[in-house]
């Protein structure tokens, strides 16, 4: 176990830190011990670097011993805290593990090859994108000001009038997805660069395929939530419907990637989206069965309404200066 996480466990054991949830000691998890270590070292390193730049006391990143696919951020605590349920890590691992045969299929062989070029098995590469997305989403919640804080007239001048039909919570969640997409885009393009940020290799087709793979992994995460909400909703509940979030990610992730690739690399975002849906449906099939075969069809049938509601959320987010993409422009 990494020394940084052992220190977190010790601080809880001696009462320096408290939480009303059971803290997860993954040292006995032989199968996923290395995965937890790798994930923790990367994400905690990012969190501590950002905290130092922002002038925060060192925050705490921890795993919670709960089986549900969930995570949380506690910006009001001292120190600030991000918790990720072991159920999220292990459910997503189980979903992707053992599906190498998918990447042996002619339809997905090229995606499998570009994933393998990252140095891991394709399933682990996709999982890393998913876990990075989840962590960065919660990091964004640490950055966000409370929606109860009033905005001044000066702050609101020149900004669009937010639609009354969009819950503030939806803007907070979409803002967090925006920050998370930046992180995924940075990681994705980093696979084609050297340590000095110089582009080394990677064709337009390879960038498109890796974008499809990253989106497919995130879509699989969203589908885990979507199975609870088979009927598309818009203004209800705390989080936007997963298909609304999928549309947002498919819209913004390619923009982020284009900003980080050299001239001559052309990302086909529509091809990436089509491949992402097909790959997600195939990866999800053993777990969720026939219903996931209709994911792309449901999305296509409702895309106009989904995009229109997404635009409303974006308008609301732009009217809220306290959101994370306004406060930490270097988050990616």
Description:
The chain is mostly helical and 332 residues long. It has two domains: 1-96, no CATH class; 99-327, no CATH class. The protein contains 13 helices and three strands, in the order ααβββααααααααααα. The chain has helices spanning 3-13, 33-54, 86-96, 100-104, 109-116, 122-143, 153-156, 168-190, 204-226, 242-258, 269-288, 295-318, 324-327, and strands at 60-64, 71-74, 81-85. It has a three-stranded mixed sheet. Strand 2 and strand 3 form a beta hairpin. The longest helix has 24 residues, at 295-318. The two termini are 27 Å apart.
Write the layout of secondary structure elements.
Layout: H1 3-13, H2 33-54, E1 60-64, E2 71-74, E3 81-85, H3 86-96, H4 100-104, H5 109-116, H6 122-143, H7 153-156, H8 168-190, H9 204-226, H10 242-258, H11 269-288, H12 295-318, H13 324-327
Parallel strand pairs: 1-3
Antiparallel strand pairs: 2-3
Helix pairs in contact: 3-6, 5-6, 5-9, 6-8, 6-9, 8-9, 8-10, 8-12, 9-10, 9-11, 10-12
């Amino acid at each position: 176990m990494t020394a940084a996480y052992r220190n977190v466990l010790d601080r809880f054991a001696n009462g320096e830190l408290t939480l009303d949830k059971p803290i997860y000691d993954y040292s006995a998890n032989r199968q996923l011990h290395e995965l937890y270590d790798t994930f923790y070292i990367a994400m905690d390193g990012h969190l501590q670097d950002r905290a130092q730049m922002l002038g925060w006391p060192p925050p705490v990143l921890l795993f919670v011993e709960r089986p549900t696919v969930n995570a949380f951020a506690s910006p009001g605590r001292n120190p600030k805290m991000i918790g990720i349920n072991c159920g999220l890590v292990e459910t997503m691992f189980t979903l992707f593990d053992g599906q190498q045969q998918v990447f042996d299929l002619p339809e997905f062989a090229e995606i499998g090859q570009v994933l393998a070029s990252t140095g891991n098995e394709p399933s682990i590469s996709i999982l890393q994108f998913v876990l990075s997305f989840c962590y960065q989403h919660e990091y964004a919640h640490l950055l966000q000001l409370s929606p109860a804080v009033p905005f001044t007239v000066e702050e609101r001048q020149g900004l669009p009038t937010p639609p009354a039909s969009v819950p503030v919570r939806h803007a907070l969640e979409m803002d967090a997805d925006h920050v998370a997409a930046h992180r995924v885009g940075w990681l994705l393009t980093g696979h084609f660069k050297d340590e000095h940020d110089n582009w080394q290799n990677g064709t337009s087709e390879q960038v498109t395929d890796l974008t499809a793979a990253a989106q497919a992994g995130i879509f699989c995460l969203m589908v885990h939530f979507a199975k609870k909400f088979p009927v598309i909703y818009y203004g209800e509940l705390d989080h936007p419907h997963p298909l609304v979030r999928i549309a947002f990610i498919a819209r913004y992730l390619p923009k982020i990637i284009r900003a980080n690739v050299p001239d001559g690399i052309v990302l086909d975002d529509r091809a990436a989206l089509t491949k992402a849906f097909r790959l997600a449906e195939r990866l999800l099939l053993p777990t969720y069965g026939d219903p996931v075969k209709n994911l792309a069809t449901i999305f296509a049938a409702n895309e106009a309404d989904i995009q229109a509601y997404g635009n409303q959320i974006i308008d609301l987010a732009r009217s809220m200066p306290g959101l994370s993409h306004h406060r930490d422009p270097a988050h990616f």
